Prior knowledge:
Number of domains of chain B: 1
Strand content of chain C: 15-25%
Strand order of the largest sheet of chain C: 5-6-7-3-8-9-11-10
Number of helices of chain C: 11
Distance between the termini of chain B: 50 Å
Number of domains of chain C: 2
Radius of gyration of chain B: 19 Å
Order of helices and strands of chain B: EEEHEEHEHHHHEHEHEEHH
CATH architecture of chain B: 3-Layer(aba) Sandwich
Oligomer: heterotrimer
Shape of chain B: globular
CATH topology of the largest domain in chain C: Rossmann fold
Helix content of chain B: 25-40%
CATH architecture of the largest domain in chain C: 3-Layer(aba) Sandwich
CATH superfamily of the largest domain in chain C: P-loop containing nucleotide triphosphate hydrolases
Amino acid sequence: MAGILRDLLRYHAEFRIGAALIAVVLLLSVLASFSPYPPQDVYVVPPDVPPSLTYWFGTTSRGQDVFWQLTFAIRNTLLFGCTVALISRILALVIGLISGYKGGWIDRALMSVNDTFIVIPLLPILVLFYFVMRDRMSWLLLALIMACLGWAYDARLIRSVAMSLKSREFTQSSLFSGMSTREILVQEHLPYVMPIVFSTTMNNMVWSIGLEVTLAVLGFTDINTPTIGGMIYWANQHTAMVAGVWWWIAFPTIAVIMTFIGLFLLAVSMNDYIDPRSRLRSFGGAS
Amino acid sequence: MSDLLLDVCQVSKTFSRGGLLSGQRIAAVKDVSFQLDAGRPEIFAIIGESGSGKTTLSRMILNIETPTSGKLRFAGVDLATIRTGARRLAFMHKVQPIFQNPFESFNPLRRLDGYLFMTHRRFIAADWRGTPETAVDEALHKVGLSLKEVSRRYPHELSGGQLQRVAIARALLANPKLIVADEPVSMIDASLRISIVNLFKRLRDDLGISIIYVTHDLATAYYVSDRIMIMQQGSVVESGDARTVLKAPQHPYSRQLREAALLPNPQQAVL
Amino acid sequence: MPAETTQDYLPDEAQPILSVRDLRAHFRTDRFGVKRDVKAVDGISFAVRRGEIYGLAGESSSGKTTLIKTIAGAVRPPLEVVGGRVDFAFLPGYGGLHRAPAAEVARIRWRHLSYIMQGSMNVLNPVRRLRSAFVDFAYPHIGGSRKQFEREVVAHLARLKLDPSVLAAYPHELSGGMRQRATIALATICRPEVILADEPTTALDVVVQKEVLGMISGIRREIGSSVLLVTHDLGVHAHVTDRLGIMYAGRLIEEAATVEIFRNPLHPYTRHLISSLPRIGDDVPREGLEGAPPNLADPPPGCRFHPRCPLAMEVCRRQVPATLETAPAHRVACFAVNRSEEA
């Protein structure tokens, strides 16, 4: 693993840039632990102060330090994205691999469920959930709901790879070596599926963060816990752009854009490295 | 009446393609029957071109496909009854495959020893007195390789001939009574082909393993098999002792195959 | 006394239609800091005369596919030509198709030089009828009115004993054998001087293979094209080719008339190869060759066959044997063989 990272850092410009961006973002989220102000408190500092040496990113109209708020915001947003990505990857993998390998009625049953989930319109459903659950809508619950909505498309991708792998002869060799279904899926097929899992993880994080920001900006989430979307929501509530308090919106936006671009670059460069086809090509010689 | 190792009885397989209304039915195998004796290990060649049904037949013998009609019995047990995990394992303990493309027989992303040790673990380990390494090394020695050469290697690091031998060693680790080899040498270089085919002879003579050798190559079939069965479009057109059938084929299709086989003898060039 | 020749050997006959001189083509990759230099074609010289079918036999990693790609001009990274030349009689001066300008290549492709490849589906567009393939490939060279062209195509198909109705068919409607024969008709309609055939019958059934090979022989009779036939199948060479070159690990180790190679193979590898082929009616037990072909990224020094050779001597490990004319019109690259001829 370390060897792979070293190679990537040395030879892949995209990986270097992506890693740098994500490093900055991670640093910010780590700094949240050192914040002198609790995140929920308001009016702890003079409001509407532009960026200066005392307040690096300025302060908000609610009297919060933008920099320290941002550290909490980016940390919560990242955690949220990771949670959604993790849960939905697991769902997509399990359902996709089993469906593709087993075939038959299991496949048909799972894919009808899958079809249902694919066509669900996301934003209306999420808004509906918010209105139904209102006060009980915590971040974890939102993450769970979004994970349940985010596995369907990738499960199909994984399923088609699993189906093609099933017909390859080494699957038969594994069967006749006495391997059980679970062993075959994990040891033989998973490596082929990993590139999809990886790139879709990044996609998924970008998607979930984006959706969260959207919901928050519209006010449909728990807006007291600071997140990027939450910050923008409050900024809008206080008409920050009109009032000239541009720093309140600019810095969260820049942070989230850095996150997106960093994740994208990482995904693209790791994918090229992990992809079995490019690895196999690097093995082969001439004949 | 001696015990039958394999009893293929009037087996047919039809595939249907297309939707509910406009389906096509393709008869891949039509009413094929033959038997292998348990007491007398032999190499039984199934010869045919593409579309002859030989691969479908071999897949049915391996219990990867089920016949549309007819019965296949291995050591008296009807293959249709072998569905559950434990019975399948017992079946695979006795019947093992060799595939055409040695590079496809193993996952290119995994090391080879994984398959060898897994086969040993699943089928033999309970009765084996020594370490897994000695068992694997012994099997590899039987095919002319050693654990040192193969250990920690990926498939692309070996040649086609070596890989096919590893595949045979893997099959041997299960201690089978029957090996079903589907075109095992057609993708191997000519200079390495004969050593694999000679290996089949040794497996039959020294280890008492019967081999079903599915191929389109008449010359190697002549060289190594005891009996042969020629198939065309799913049906058997001729069968019998290998030397007799190939030296003097009776059926017009067999004659056609024999004539079309390009033997390495330029004096007899007819083109 | 064997005639000692340089690598620039040319046959005595009139200028050959295709001559390859000391050709070297390597695959060079540099990925994540790992450099590999696979010497797929490493110093090959031979010549194809007009109107002859010249066979190149070799097993996997012998370099024969790379060789024919290089001759055909399909040289793209990571493949690089690092030395030598390929000269056609109708395209002098450039030293290889890959060095010639695009206009010249377009001029000679299909008209003077054409190809028959292993997968006919590589050439034929699956969503268009066969007729369109003829129009796309051959019409630019033949010209004239469309009606005239159509008549010529039908006449050509008739000459090759192909039913003209195949023109109206889509590729998937024809069997593999018919497709390959149609591809051959396509490759020969402009009456090219040289046809490069790479494993033309490998995927075909035995009976169909015979028909396709008969067609290739017929082409030489009817049109007088030379054919460079590359295949690992020695049975095919025995029945179709006039002269045969044996390739091993990127080098040409023996070359002679086909009959001569089968009757009197000289190089240890060739001798072993010929004797290991089983024949119907012959019950002699045969032996396989130990070891495996070398890895072309890291080949053994000196003669590349020496690790597996029963006649290997000290010099074989250090020097590359030159290709000498050991017997009349019979070239061999082996120290053991050439030395014993001297004695």
